Amino acid sequence: MSKIKKLKHIAHTNYVIDNIKYINFNIVNPNAKSKEYEQTIDDVLNNEKYAYSQLMYNQNPLVYVTTPLMVCPFGLDRKTNIMNLQFTNYKTDKLMNSFFEFIKNIEFQQMQYIGLDDDNSDLYLSQIRYPKKFDPNLIVKLPFSYNKYNVDIYHDGFPMSIFNITSFSKMTCDIYIDKIWKYNDVFYCKWKARKIYLV
Question: What average pLDDT does this structure show over 28-56?
Fold first, then answer.
């Protein structure tokens, strides 16, 4: 039995992007060692105390989705704990194009929610990269804490670890987003991997 069954197989088409909601939080005291947050109804863009927005979808505090089969062109960057997943042939592959549009439209929705427009869109850091001469890539972070990766990795042939993610590895992943953060006046919403199935 293939270990790809260990993924959740949640199709991006299950989501209605307009149904993603946000709950905003301010930081109580930015100078305190232990950070405390309080819910706020203030707008996001001009709120100096704003810290983050928690995503909500049907009472779930995240958007969790399974990617199509994608190529990781550069392998895992162990300094930053990120990998790039390529939207290969997204102009001609209907599934890949649909997934690309899904990611892109979530970002557009978030920018609109924050209150950004063409004049200040650089205040939101897209997780899609557009290399010259190549298809776009999605940046995916591998959560790392307490000196270990909080990601499950599977392969049908033999045991795998995160360090088996090399250039041009092919994989299907369960990925998620849970918060929009503001850092140095820039807004981020990073996709994170939860499970990886290497082909």
Answer: 92
